[in-house]
Amino acid sequence: MNKIKTRSEIDPQFKWSITDLYENDEAWEAAYAKCSAELAGFSAFSPLTLENLDACLKFRDELAKNIERVYVYANLKSDEDNTNTKYQGLADRADALIAQYSSSSAFIEPDILALDETELLKALKTDRLKIYDHYISDILRSRVHNDGRILRNLQCPEHHIRYAERSGYNF
Fold first, then answer.
1. What domains, with CATH codes, occur in the chain?
2. Cα–Cα dist 124/136, whole Å
């Protein structure tokens, strides 16, 4: 019967390479620390206004992209060998970073709903906000009116479900 090889026994040509994400764990640590520190940047956009909306959304998108790289690297390293507790720890830290990001950016959609809708729709036609037209229009469509009060539909962000499902398999 053939013995199952460990990752270290497999020819490198048959392994994924994640050095395009980060050259090594030290580079990952630096990126993680930078992303973690940048979460405080959301406070610069509170209160959210039509004047700072585009800058806020650009900041959010860039930070999300960087956090996703941190997450992918940590989880690919963890998936290389699920018995390696070092990389399980990195994956857990990446999960926590995503939760912090979600918490730090949670004000955005409610604040968009609080903006004057007529002025917001006008602003969406400008070059600076045109790219966010579909996103903001979806937020506006998700409103539910109840006795003159505006309520937000309850939603569970897809990425929370995806990460919760993944975590269930790492025993």
1. 23-167 (1.20.140.70)
2. 8
